[in-house]
Amino acid sequence: MAQLIDGKLISAQVLQEVAAEVELIGAEHGIKPTLAVVLVGEDPASQVYVSNKVKRAIEAGMGSIEHRLDADTTQAALNELIDALNNDPEVHGILVQLPLPSHLDEDAVISAIHPAKDVDGFHPLNVGALASGRPSLVPCTPQGCMIMLRQVHPDLSGKHAVVVGRSNIVGKPMAALLLQANCTVTIVHSRTQHIESLCRQADILVAAIGRPEFINADWVKPGATVIDVGINARDVDGKRKLVGDVAFESVAQVAGAITPVPGGVGPMTIACLLLNTTRAARLQLT
Ligand code: GUN
């Protein structure tokens, strides 16, 4: 049975460090690192994510501002809000929850956020900085995955990491971080040929495809470390259950270490968001 990588426990440690940093920034500079979260529309999953982000920010001693906008909000109105948050000296981090309703242009919204307040690390300037090895604000989910990986592999150098999925939010920045940590990196996706045999070569397998229990034990090299980024709702015996992109029960028999869902990557993402907010606050001081 694989070692369980406990995201709840590790995220609690990160949050403790964040709370200490919030206090230090307050004592040194008289400011309270503050996160503004913007949610457009009523997507139920997004509502849960946003509530959790706000709750954890307050627990860490941060300021937290929530903007909930109607599903039919115009691009102009959203841009106006982002402008106001960019120019508000009491706001240090801005997060616009994705996905946005289809009439809104996500790329335009991401580009409108000031790069120093871009706690998601999605702005083209921050994406470019990460790709060229000069990261400032790094996307939260891949950052959380790296912290968990380091618990198992303090030195990742020379490991073969396979990232399943190529999204801008997870797959691409994850690959960049693994490369920076001197891994040999393969990205596989829906059009990849021989995907199963490529996955089976991985020392480190990161699943970020958004398909429930897609990866089973046959895809995993014995002893590999498996990071499951997926959060999918599935009906099991008539009950709604959260499952990852990995078939946990069977893969845990083969893997050396594995993250559970829930209690794995999810809490790490939030902890890293708050970590980024303290970093953003520091960036704005200089
Ligand atoms: N939706 C799913 N994951 C994320 C994330 O990391 N940031 C934002 N803004 N929206 C998301």
Task: Name its key features.
286 residues, alpha/beta, Rossmann fold, 2 domains, six-stranded parallel sheet, 10 helices, 11 strands, globular, binds guanine
CATH superfamily of the largest domain: NAD(P)-binding Rossmann-like Domain
Based on Cα principal axes, name the global outline.
globular
**Biggest β-sheet, characterized?**
6 strands, parallel
CATH-defined architecture of the largest domain: 3-Layer(aba) Sandwich
> What ligands does this structure carry?
guanine
State the separation between the terminal residues, measured CA to CA.
48 Å
**How many DSSP helices?**
10
What does this structure look like?
The protein is of the alpha/beta class and 286 residues long. It folds into 2 domains: 30-120, Leucine Dehydrogenase, chain A, domain 1 (Rossmann fold), CATH 3.40.50; 140-266, NAD(P)-binding Rossmann-like Domain (Rossmann fold), CATH 3.40.50.720. Helices cover 42% and strands 17% of the residues. It contains 10 helices and 11 strands. The protein has helices at 7-29, 44-59, 75-86, 106-112, 124-131, 140-152, 171-180, 195-199, 248-251, 265-285; strands at 3-4, 34-40, 63-69, 93-96, 160-164, 184-188, 204-207, 225-228, 232-236, 239-243, 257-258. The strands form 3 sheets. It has a 6-stranded parallel β-sheet with strand order 1-11-8-7-5-6. It has a 3-stranded parallel β-sheet with strand order 3-2-4, sandwiched between helices. Strand 2 (34-40), helix 2 and strand 3 (63-69) form a beta-alpha-beta unit. The termini are far apart. The relative contact order is 0.17. Guanine binds next to strand 4 and helix 6. Residues 95-98, 120, 140-141, 169 line the site of guanine.
